[in-house]
Amino acid sequence: MGGVNRTNGGVNLPALRSHNAALVLDLLRTAGGEGISRLELAERTGLTPQAVSKITGRLREEGLATEAGHRASTGGKPRTVLRLVPGAGHAVGLHLDRDESTVVLCDLTGAVVAARRSPLDLGAGAEAVVEGAAREVEALLSEGTSDASVLGVGVALPGPLDHSRGVLRRVTGFPEWDGFPLRDALERRLGVPVVVDKDTNAAALGLAVGGAGESFAYLHLGTGLGAGLVIGGAVHRGARTGAGEFGHQVIQLDGPVCGCGNRGCIEALCLAAVAREEVGEAARVLGAGAANLVGLLDIDLVLLGGRTVAADPETFVRGVAAVLDARARSADAVPVRVASGGVAEGAAQLLLGPLFGRGDG
Hints:
Blueprint: H1 13-16, H2 19-31, E1 36-37, H3 38-45, H4 49-61, E2 65-71, E3 79-84, E4 90-96, E5 100-107, E6 112-119, H5 126-142, E7 150-157, E8 161-162, E9 167-168, H6 182-190, E10 194-198, H7 199-209, E11 215-221, E12 225-231, E13 234-235, H8 266-275, H9 279-297, E14 301-305, H10 307-311, H11 313-327, E15 336-338, H12 343-355
Parallel strand pairs: 4-7, 7-10, 11-14, 14-15
Antiparallel strand pairs: 1-3, 2-3, 4-5, 5-6, 8-9, 11-12, 12-13
């Protein structure tokens, strides 16, 4: 695979598969360019200074951490400050939507350093889609990133799917994908580790790593509608990795037929309203579904994303918030905001997050 270097000067994954190393790395990540001292790392993690010195020594040997100067001490010699080296490793995030693909290259902080977007027909057949996706990844890596150490590729696409095995199920509107082992197919083609998850879960993971909160719902309205749920700081996928099929809750028993075969699904109602250019109505329908989630899960925040929301974010935030306000059973309604970051960036976190103890990949 062009542009991939996983051995020379790259990230040694086995050396990092440690809970304590992940704790230290995450603190280095959140400290940013200002860095953090070994003493602070010990205080924040509860590890002994000796353990921290051993871990940071290994991270420096791997090129993941470096000195960032010195900080005045209350007594004795100044403390050496360490920081993360963002360019020491990279992850590819690939978003396969129904009609377009987006691929990004992210450094260890999650910052996008390169990106590509191209048309896609998700119904063109597995062989064509896999080959097209692989070529987009290779093209991205060839654009001046040949020295990047690539941890792997995170792939996000509409569900339902089996995240643990990387196998697709009956993607709404594309039943021919049912049972296809996408993870294995891309790993064979690209020669690097691949993690597959639903678009909404990937986006939610990216938001969680970015500090969105411990308890929130990410609602994605684009060519379809789904939800990513974060509970207790972790993405909630469910026992069969099927959680978040938000768009196919029936809220109108005799409503229009949905692509899933049922009638009156919130996805069908939302997309129909958008097609009629009744964006305010679409926002109210979305708000009804959001209110159901808030009532069931008692979450702290609702975040909205997807290209349909991006086309008129103020209308969607206002409409969803109005329904939540009207149905709030307490004095404080749950806030609604537009999400920062996209699905492709979240897909990269499927690889990056576990390095920092922020997700299981």
